[in-house]
Design brief:
alpha+beta, Dna Ligase, domain 1, Nucleotidyltransferase, domain 5, five-stranded mixed beta sheet, about 35% helix, binds adenosine-5'-triphosphate, binds magnesium ion
Length: about 400
C-alpha cells in the first residue's frame, strides 16, 4: 500500500489555538483526520506570554486531535503559524555573477542570490522569518519567475523579507520544544491562510486576503506572491465587546447572541424580533430587540472594514487587485459582512473557506479554520519556493537560555 504522509498544523490564534492532523495520499489528497481547539492561554495575539500556560494550551489541542485521528502527533511533520504586531516586512535585493555562464543558471546561483538579498542590517532583536523572491532579473531582463537553466551572466533578485522579533520567534520554538516537536517549521499566519482560501489564479491576478479573527490580518498577493502583510490590533472580538456593553450582558452571552442573531447591517432585517439573553447583573433573563443588536454591530463592523480599506490603500497595491478581496476568519461568518465589505472596498468580495481539504465539516467549511488547513497545504505546496524553514535555536543559544533559567531560579 502506498505510504500516507502525516502533517499537523498548529494555528496560534488570538481567540483559540487549533491543532489539525491530516493525512495526505500520494496523489496529494488531504484528509483531516483529527482536530482540537483550546483557549489561547499563555499567548497574547499569537505571542507567548507564559511558557507553561502556552505549552498546556497547545498540549490540550494536540491531545484532542490525536484522539480523534487515532495517531501519535510525533509521527507528523508540524507546521505552526506565527503572527503578532512584531511582524513587519522589508524589501531585499541581491545580485551575483552567474558561476558558470555556459551551463546556465544553477540552483547554487539562485541560493547565492537569495542569500545576498538577506544581507540587510537588522537590529539585534529582529530576525528574518521568510525570504520570498518576488522577481528575478537576468542580465537586466525583469520579471523572471524561475531562472533555473536560463543563460545569463548576472542574476539579480528582488525579495520580500518577512521579519519578526527574535524573542517572539524563539519563544514559540521553546514551547514546541517542550512538547517534544522537532520536525517543525514556522509560517507567517496570513501566508499559511492564503494556501487554504486563495487559489494560484487569485494570487496571480491580485487579491487582498483579510482574516477577521480576534484581530485582523491583512495580506496582499500580486503576480503569485505575497507583497504586503499587516496586523491590525482590532477585530471581531471588538464587536463582541460592543455587544456586551450595548446589551448590558456578559462577554460570553454577547458572543453567543452575536454568532446566532448578529447581522452586519441593520437594514438586512425585514422585521424585528425579541431575543432572550442573560442580564450582566445576573438578575435573570431579559428581552432585547434584534434590531438593537444589529445597530450595535453595524458601526463597529463598518469601522473595522474602513480601517482595513485604508490599510489596503496605504499599501499602494489596491489598484492591482483584479481578484478583489477574500474575507476569512471567524468574523467572516457574520451574516452580510461580505455585502457591506463590497460597498466599502468597492471591489468584489467573497468569503474564503478552506478549499481542497476533505474531512469534518466543522473544519473544511469553516473560515475560522482557514489558517489551520492552510498550514497543511503550505507544507505540501509551499516548499522551499515560498518560504524558508527556520533552523531551531543553536545549541549555544539554548544553553544560554537554560543558564539564564538557573540564575532566575
Ligand atoms: N458565526 C459567527 N458570526 C459572527 N462572528 C463569528 C462567528 N463565528 C465566529 N465569529 C467570531 O470570529 C472571531 C474568531 O475568529 P477566529 O477563530 O478566526 O479567530 P482567531 O484565529 O483565534 O484569531 P486571529 O486569527 O485574529 O489571531 C471571534 O471574535 C468570533 O466572535
Ligand atoms: Mg486566525
Amino acid at each position: 500500500m502506498a505510504k500516507l504522509r502525516r502533517i499537523a498544523g498548529i494555528d496560534i490564534g488570538s481567540t483559540k489555538v487549533v491543532c489539525i492532523i491530516a493525512e495526505v495520499d500520494p496523489m496529494g489528497k488531504i484528509e483531516v483526520k483529527g482536530f482540537g481547539t483550546a483557549p489561547p492561554e499563555g499567548f497574547r495575539t499569537g505571542v507567548v506570554i507564559s511558557l507553561d500556560k502556552a505549552t498546556d494550551s497547545l498540549a490540550s489541542a494536540i491531545e484532542q486531535a490525536e484522539k480523534m485521528a487515532q495517531c501519535r502527533f510525533h509521527t507528523c511533520q508540524v507546521f505552526t503559524s506565527i503572527t503578532g504586531d512584531h511582524i513587519k516586512h522589508l524589501s531585499g535585493l541581491g545580485a551575483v555573477p552567474v558561476s558558470r555562464p555556459p551551463r546556465g543558471i544553477q540552483a547554487r546561483d539562485v541560493e547565492d542570490v537569495i542569500r545576498q538579498a538577506q544581507t540587510i542590517r537588522l537590529p539585534n532583536d529582529e530576525q528574518i522569518l521568510h525570504v520570498i523572491p518576488t522577481q528575478f532579473i537576468v542580465d537586466g531582463q525583469k520579471g523572471v519567475r524561475d531562472p533555473l537553466g536560463l543563460f545569463g551572466i548576472r542574476l539579480e533578485v528582488e525579495a520580500l523579507l518577512i521579519i519578526g522579533a527574535v524573542t517572539a520567534i524563539q519563544n514559540i520554538y521553546r514551547v514546541l520544544e517542550r512538547l517534544d516537536i522537532s520536525n517543525r517549521a514556522l509560517v507567517l499566519q496570513s501566508l499559511a491562510t492564503s494556501f487554504a482560501v486563495c487559489d494560484e489564479e487569485d494570487k496571480e491576478l491580485g487579491v487582498a486576503l483579510v482574516d477577521i479573527g480576534g484581530v485582523i490580518d491583512i495580506s496582499i498577493y500580486r503576480e503569485g506572491q505575497i507583497r504586503f502583510t499587516k496586523m491590525l490590533p482590532v477585530g471581531a472580538a471588538n464587536i463582541t465587546k460592543d455587544v456586551a456593553i450595548g446589551l448590558r450582558t456578559s462577554y460570553q452571552q454577547a458572543e453567543v447572541v452575536k454568532r446566532e442573531y448578529g447581522v452586519a447591517m441593520a437594514g438586512m432585517l425585514e422585521r424585528d424580533e425579541a431575543l432572550t439573553i442573560e442580564d450582566a447583573s445576573g438578575r435573570g433573563p431579559k428581552q432585547v430587540s434584534r434590531r438593537l443588536l444589529a445597530s450595535i454591530i453595524e458601526p463597529r463592523v463598518e469601522e473595522l472594514l474602513n480601517l482595513t480599506d485604508s490599510e489596503v490603500r496605504k499599501s499602494g497595491l489596491a489598484d492591482g487587485l483584479s481578484a478583489g478581496v477574500v474575507l476569512t476568519g471567524g468574523g467572516a461568518l457574520l451574516s452580510g459582512i461580505d455585502v457591506l465589505a463590497e460597498q466599502i472596498f468597492g471591489m468584489p468580495v467573497k468569503v474564503g473557506r478552506p478549499e481542497r481539504v476533505q474531512g469534518p465539516r466543522e473544519v473544511v467549511q469553516n473560515p475560522a479554520f482557514a489558517t489551520g488547513a492552510g498550514l497543511i497545504r503550505c507544507a505540501l505546496e509551499g516548499g522551499g519556493r515560498q518560504f524558508h524553514q527556520l533552523p531551531p535555536p543553536s545549541l549555544g543559544q539554548r544553553l544560554w537560555e537554560e543558564m539564564k533559567g538557573w540564575f532566575r531560579g
